[in-house]
Design brief:
Order of helices and strands: HHHHH
Strand content: under 5%
Structural class: mainly alpha
Helix content: over 70%
Shape: globular
Length: about 100
């Protein structure tokens, strides 16, 4: 790895673990909100994340193609994804990464 990217790698690799854990925690909270108990939700979310990572590794990491496979027109997946984007999911994550990067510099 280029030495100039070490700080950026620290943000993505080290801080990234916490970002992924936060995502998992929020998924569990959402599962509880829709009626599951915490233990069942935790196991389900862990398996979901594990499956998603396995797919990405097998498919040479093309997330959008995998998203398209599970998103149908007028379906509940696209409805959820659209709401997450409307609420700032992607921009919030990018801003968090940039904030961590600015702090490490």
């Amino acid at each position: 790895m280029n030495e100039e990217l070490m700080e950026a790698a620290t943000v993505l690799d080290a801080c990234g673990i916490a970002y992924v854990f936060r995502f998992i925690r929020v998924m569990v909270q959402g599962g509880v909100e829709i009626g599951f108990d915490t233990t069942t939700t935790s196991k389900t979310v862990q398996q979901t994340v594990k499956g998603a990572i396995s797919l990405l590794m097998k498919m040479r990491f093309i997330p959008e193609q995998e998203i398209d496979k599970v998103t149908t027109p007028k379906g509940y997946t696209i409805t959820g994804l659209d709401e997450m984007e409307y609420q700032g999911f992607s921009s919030s994550l990018i801003k968090g990464i940039l904030s961590s990067y600015r702090k490490i510099q």
